Amino acid sequence: MKRPVILLAACTIALPSHAQDAARDWDLLRDPDKHLTLAYTRFETGLTLATRCIDGGYEALITGLPPAGEGDTRILHLAFGDDDLYPVRWNVAMNDTIAVSDRPAPFARELREGGRLRVMIPGGAEGGANLVHDLTLPASSNSIDETLTTCGRPVTDPRDAELEALPEGGLPANLIWARAPRPDFPRSARYGRGFATVMCLTAPDGALRECSVEAEHPLDGGFGEAALRATRSARVENADEPASPVPLRLILYRNNFILSGSDTGDGRRRHRDPRGR
Question: What is this structure's pTM?
C-alpha cells in the first residue's frame, strides 16, 4: 500500500458541498489512478460519513468532527434507529477532525441499511456540552457495496454478530493472552503513530491462524504488516484451565503504535503496544 495518507484529507476536502438527499444512494467516487473507490454522504450538520477502498485497504470514516486534541483514540456514542446510544472507541486520524473505525467492514454493512443514526460527541458543543447529530442515512444498494467488494469484503457477513459480542479487549470472555502480540514499530519512520486491527481464529494449542488486517491507519504506514508478523508468536489460553485445548473462536484486537524516545540500538526508535481495541 503505497498511497500517501494525504489522500484521506484530500478526499474529504474535495467532496461536493451539498447535503445528501436521503432518497438516493450514497455518492460514489472512483479514481483508478489512485486505486480508490469512495462512497460518502454529507449532511448539513457538517458531518460526512464515508467508506473507501484504497490500494486494497478498507476504511470507514466520520469527518467534520470537533478536533480530538491529544490522544490517538476518542469516544463517540452511536445509535442506529431508536436504540440507546452506546460508546464506541474510534481512532484519531492524522487530521484530528477525522475518526477512523476499528471495524470498518461491519460498520459499513450497518450503514448500507440506511435509516436513523445518532452520533453524540462528548464535550463537542459550546461550553463543553455534549453535541448530538441526529441523521437520516440514505440506504445504499450500490455505492457502499462497491467499496466492500472492491476490497474483497463481503456485503453480508454472519461473523458481524460474533464480533459485536466481543468485549473491549477483543478476546472472548473465556480466553486470555498467554503471550500478547508485540509488534515492532515499522522500520519506515514516516509516521509517529498508527494502529492496526487484526482478526484471527484460535487454534487448539492457543496459536492464532487465518489472521487478516481488518483496519489500519495510515494505510501506507506498514502497521498492518507489522501487526500480522506479531501474530506468529502470540498465544491465547483458557482463563480457568490454561492446559486444556483452546476452543475455535474468532478474535479481533488492536495494536497501537506510538514512536517513543528510546533507542533500540539500530538507530531507530520503537514502541510496542499490545493493548486491545
Answer: 0.83
